[in-house]
Amino acid sequence: MTSLSRLGFSTTARSSPPRAIGMHPNHVVTTSGPNIPQSHSCGAFGLVSPASSQCRDGGHDGYPFSPASSKSGNLTEPRNYAPRTSGQPAVCSEPPPKFDPSGLVNGQLHQQQGMNGQQQVSTGPQYHQPVANGQQYQQQAAVPTQAQLTPGGHALVQVYPGPEAPVVNYSSSLAVVPATEIRANRSSELNNLTNTPSGLPLVANAMDPSNFPFVEAPRMAQAINRGVVKLKNIPFATKRSEVIAFLGRNSKILNDSEEPVHIIMERVTSKTMDAYVEFVSLEEAMKAVDKHHHNLKNGRVSRLGDRPIEVELSSQANLMRDLFPLARGLIWDGATPHFKPFNQNYAWENFRGFISEEEMVMLIKHVEVPHRSPYSKDCPQRPYECLISTLKKFPWYATDRISISQRHAMYIATERLLQVLSEKVNRGCDHINLTAQLQTRLTNAALACPGFTPLMKDNLAWLLNIPEAEQRFYGQPRYAYSWRHQYSLAPKPGAPLDWYISIIREQTHRDMLSRTHASRTELQEKGQQTDMYWGYFWAELGHNFGPQFDQMTLAQVAHAEFTAVERVLSRALPSH
Predict the structure, then answer these.
(1) Where are the alpha helices (DSSP H) in 343-403?
(2) Does residue 168 form part of some domain?
(3) Are 504 and 389 within one domain?
(4) How far apart are CA 401 and CA 551, in angstroms?
(5) One domain for residues 550 and 422
(6) Which of 111, 165, 298, 375 could form a disulfide with 270, with the two C-beta atoms 3.0–4.6 Å apart?
(7) Residue 501 burial (CB < 10 Å; 0-12/13-18/19+)?
(8) Residue 19 domain-assigned?
(9) Assign residue 203 a region: left if phi > 0, alpha if psi is -120 to 50, beta otherwise?
(10) Which is it for strands 214-216 and 489-491: parallel, antiparallel or unpaired?
């Protein structure tokens, strides 16, 4: 017995033998002879020697190891150099659980682990934050795609942190059944979609138009033919309010939010041309023209200011032709353009775009240096009203004829004009022409423009300090600043948007890990320079930026994005 004490083994029986640091609380110690331990299970750390556990040898307070074993490492498992599959959980030497049919012992253990897991995921910045109530286009709360149910009813949920460094647990599976608490916080649409044994819908159900949360925003615009009245020979300094007052309060023109008055301005010289007014129907437009002709027969000449003007019935085709004078090679059928075949003999008659980048540049110059433009100097609000009419009446639905560069030129002009107008309104430069009402009209036209991407609208909202709750009114998604590589996709209100994005993010991360080391390293370096809220969706698109990308049409970009989403979902979700 004395020799055993000198070697570090206790000769006195103990009810609970001491365990090394990191040892599993429910490990089993098998003894042979007088309490001599043969093996110690230490959870995922394997067999721990006294040296690695930083405990002294010998004595009743130390671990029952002999000095010889601590030096020679007889009780230490040799290092395993066998290759392991990437993404698989680490192999541990933890003993199997005890036979517990009632689930009392293991149930308490899992419940304790579930509480610890909840404490770990509750800290740190997260993508999915609550949104204020009462919003028209409130997106559904993000639902974690990986959860683990415990007998105690707790869910070990993996939540992604902020967009700087998304963390993904690739060892777990997407096929999970959400906990009751999670389903209670979900929308009814998402619960119906994920109401499957695996917790994941089929690809066909996920791509169904009733569930699919993405739309092609430019195609949401529609060509509407309304009654139009044209006012000719108007003064160049005519105001919008004067045109509305001239037609009278009984005239049924469109609501102010739809911008019924279009005062045509030549974008290069800023010269005021004619004015068009849209009515709710063709009959109402005819009544306004008949009233003017009746007054003219009775000897009362219609005047706008001190100048007699002409009032005639017009059409949407004439309005579109005067708004976009450089659009050649097409025929306007109402507000819908019909393009002529390409003519090699008369190249100047072929279609090149509804607007030119030079027009947008000159529009910016008129507001930046108005003293160099005689018309803008006397009528400073005209360039802003021209841009409002351009955004409202632009045929965004013709996506196969609008290029990325043309849309970018319109966005740059909109951003610059909003910035200049906001500064002048704050300084109070012109309380008569440059008013807060004009700024509100231009802001509404820009944020409601179907051709601008969510990122473009988010930039404008940040420039004007528009609160996030107000942005929901225009259909903006949460974290719109993270939609950096979506040039045509837009959110559909009422759909489980965040759930789809989380599926795309996790699947593209797994696809990245399956690449070769060189390709994976290159993608990771590029990923550090952009936002990773969508994961490696930009790598799935594979756009080559440059002049070739600038000449792509909105229809081509939309086809590439919807095809990429379908490919990612087909790899992430079961097919049957």
Answers:
(1) 357-368, 374-378, 382-393
(2) no
(3) no
(4) 10
(5) no
(6) 375
(7) buried
(8) no
(9) alpha
(10) antiparallel
Percent of the chain with pLDDT over 90: 46
What does the alpha-carbon distance between residue 257 and residue 20 come to, in Å, rounded to a whole number? 73
Distance CA 391, CA 451 (A): 9
Place of tokens 């993404």: 87
Q: Other CB atoms closer than 10 Å to residue 391's CB: what's the count?
A: 22
Q: Is 39's pLDDT higher than 50?
A: no
Pick from 17, 36, 37, 34: which is nearest to 25 by CA? 17
- Alpha helices (runs of H) in 472-513, residue ranges in sequence order: 497-513
Asked if 212 and 204 touch (Cβ cutoff 8 Å), the reply is no
Residue 131 domain-assigned? no
Residue 337 bridge partners (DSSP) = 332
Bridge partners for 489 per DSSP: 216
Query: pLDDT band for position 177 (50/70/90)?
Result: low
pLDDT value, residue 96: 60
Residue 451 has pLDDT above 80, yes or no: yes
Write the pLDDT tens digit of every residue in 361-417: 999 999 998 888 777 777 889 999 999 999 999 999 999 999 999 999 999 999 999
Q: How many CB atoms lie within 10 A of CB 107?
A: 14
If pLDDT is split at 50, 70 and 90, which confidence band does 298 have?
confident
Domain shared by 408 and 526, yes or no: no
Cβ 152 vs Cβ 107: under 8 Å: yes
- Gyration radius from the chain CA atoms: 35
pLDDT (0 to 100) of residue 349 = 85
**Predicted TM-score (pTM) of this structure:** 0.69
**Residues 511, 368: one domain?**
no
User: How far apart (Å, rounded) are the C-alpha atoms in residues 118 and 120?
Assistant: 5
Nearest CA-CA partner of 541 in 520, 556, 525: 556
Residue-range definition of the domain harbouring residue 286: 223-449
User: What CATH number did the domain enclosing 379 receive?
Assistant: 3.30.70.330
Written as six digits, the tokens of 390 are 């351009």
Task: Give the three-class secondary structure for 33.
Answer: coil
Phi, psi angles (nearest 5°) of residue 152 = -80, 0
Last residue of one domain, picked from the residues 432, 449, 466 = 449
**501 and 437 part of one domain:** no
What's the CA gap between 144 and 157, in Å, rounded? 6
Instruction: Copy the structure tokens of residue 561.
Output: 């994005």
Q: How far apart are the first and last CA of the chain?
A: 69
Give the residue from 27, 29, 69 showing the smallest Cα distance to 44. Answer: 27
Residues 467, 542: contact at Cβ < 8 Å? no
Q: Give the separation between CA 304 and CA 245, rounded to whole angstroms.
A: 10
97-111, 204-218, 532-546: least confident range: 97-111
> Looking at the domain assignment, is residue 146 inside a domain?
no
**Residue 514 and residue 438 share a domain:** no
Structural domains counted in the chain: 2
Whether 543 and 428 share a structural domain: no
- pLDDT tens per residue across span 312-346: 999 999 999 999 999 999 999 999 999 999 888 88
Boundary of a domain, candidates 424, 449, 474 = 449
Same domain assignment for residues 297 and 439: yes
